[in-house]
Amino acid sequence: MTNRSHTGADRLQAPTINEHMVSAVVKRLRLGQPVRRRLPSNGLLHIDRQLPFLLLYRRPARGADPRMEQLLRGESSYLIADGHRRFNRGLVTLVEAVAATLAESFGAFLLIEIWRARAPQFDDLSPPFRPAFGILAQRGDALSSTVLAVRTALERIRVQRTGAQVEFAESGRPWAPGMPRLISPQLAKRLGCHSLGLAIRPVFRDAQSGEEFPLIRRALHRSLGRAFRRAAYAFTRDQTTQRPPHFHALGPRSLSGLVWEVDRELAGIADDFDFLLCVSPTNANRAFAACKRRRFDALPVFSYRPLPVDPALIKRRLFRIPIEKIQDPALEALFYAQQSELDRKLTMLGDRNTRRFLYGSLQLYGRVEPPLLDTARRILAGVPSRSRGSAAVKSLTAGAFAARAEEEINHYREIDARVSSRVELRDDVMGIMVSHGNLLINRGQKVAQNRVDALLAHEIGTHVLTYCNGRAQPFRQLYTGLPDYEELQEGVAVTAEYLAGGLTGPRLRILAGRVLAAHMIVAGADFIEVFRELDRSHGFTRQTAFNITSRIFRGGGLLKDMVYLRGLVRVLEYLGRGEAFEPLLVGKFGADHLAIIRELQWRKVISPPLLKPRYLESAAAARRLQALRAGVDVLDLVKRV
């Protein structure tokens, strides 16, 4: 393995473990500095910061398994070493020095060693890919809570929908079979050093053929990381002077240069094209006028802007990104998911205006689920098509609304001078949209006066704000958008409309109409059939029915518009559980990534959102948000504004 150079004492790399190297390690640990030290035979000591534990893997002289050591890489404190007896003395010196130094700071120290389970352990277990673990604890050691934590975490691990088998035993030798003890009993007792051993069934490889299963290994890597942290968390709270707030707080904080390189390359590709802009018609207004002249009996003809990229060439760049070299399992999973979504979007660009586009859209957004369709139908049946007093509502021109939007952006720019978003009036966009943090408004767009604050909360207070918050984070994916981010983004944006006091009945009906249109196009309906269903059966004006249908049929069938209502329902469920609203504004990510976002926040890799929505400053918004935390049905929203 090749390691990057480091500054200070850590730059001195020794081919053997000697007194000078051990002293340098101890010095850095006492100063709270990270240690990353190459050891003999391609071994490695990595300690992110002062932590009261160390994960260990010793390569046996025979049957060494490089995949086993990969299960530790990416953790915050680990040691990979050659287990040959000629290195024993140096290894004992190093481990005892590390243990003594960290025990001095924390009052106790935990050494967790892993090894590959050997025959006949787990040989008769079926199926062959069922995960299995054997925990060894020092006989008579006071580690009951630590053992329980790691055992519970291991029992949660599933591979191919198969649960894990976990065995536990006490032993006088809780370390790898055939290996010597690394911390003497006298020193361990004096310092408060404890040991745990973990035998791991190598389910990532076929026992007979040796064929490897990389996806299983990745899943096992991530699950084991959680188990290690839960064990360390229980140990730290029970045995040391520290009280970490969460088990993820014990995860790594310093990230390799490769992580930032991969993040930069993925963001660069995402910045090369605006997917939504590429698949949206440039002639929506003219297409409506043409259909109106033909009494809406002819299919509209949409024009699209030329693609700014060659999808095939961009894909070549995309799959050259070395994500497989990322050692942090959480980030590796995140980057692979992003790569997959970019691949799907590029395929859809190549399939634009063909039937294949709809198939890609199904992969990206999924189908309309029966409960969502039922919710949409309830809204269409139960919410009036016109709000009370709507006939007297005045409208703002595109220019007047743009001025209000500029004022809103300037408010955030006063808080953070890095806010560079701008407002553009254009002829080639549908309605109002945000692209790369900029607000694009069709010149012919009109905005009802009672919807101005809601639209500002939606477009500026959500889409622009999360773009700016994402740009303030070290991870660029948080502004380009993580996989499946649209659903949560649009759910938050519609919730923002409600909190701003402008979510009207007609607006909620439009969201429901989009769901119905998405359901119909997947079922095989054409443009005119969907338009007539909305126009004749559900009371939409012809302009609104055309807009809904156009948005669903753009590009060949873009199902994105159904995620507004689906996202709103999920956000209401989230808030109904008493969860906080502000964490959803840290950047552009999906609901499925909330756990990873929280993990990275506990690890202090990403920070809380820099900008907070202006609309949340009002007392009325605070009351509405409190009402949502009590739990509401989506139809209740138009009754509570």
Core attributes:
641 residues, 2 domains, eight-stranded mixed sheet, three-stranded mixed sheet, 15 strands, elongated
Give an overview of the whole structure.
Strands 1-2-4-3-5-10-6-9 form an eight-stranded mixed sheet, with helices on both faces. The chain has 24 helices and 15 strands. The chain folds into two domains: 8-253, 3-Layer(aba) Sandwich (Aminopeptidase); 274-308 and 351-640, no CATH class. Helix 1 (19-30) packs parallel to helix 3 and helix 19 (527-537) packs antiparallel against helix 20 (542-553). It is elongated, with a radius of gyration of 29 Å. The model is unreliable at 1-14 (pLDDT under 50). With 641 residues, it is α/β, with parallel strands linked by helices.
**Count of beta strands:** 15
> Averaged pLDDT, please?
92
For the termini, the CA-CA separation is 60 Å
Total of DSSP H or I helical runs spanning 4+ residues: 24
Our estimate of the beta-strand percent is 5-15%
Our Rg estimate from Cα atoms comes to 29 Å
* Percentage of residues assigned to helices: 40-55%
- Going by helix content, strand content and strand pairing, the class is alpha/beta
How many structural domains?
Answer: 2
Tell me about the biggest sheet? Answer: 8 strands, mixed
Low-confidence stretches: 1-14
Large-scale geometry: elongated
The largest sheet has its strands arranged as: 1-2-4-3-5-10-6-9
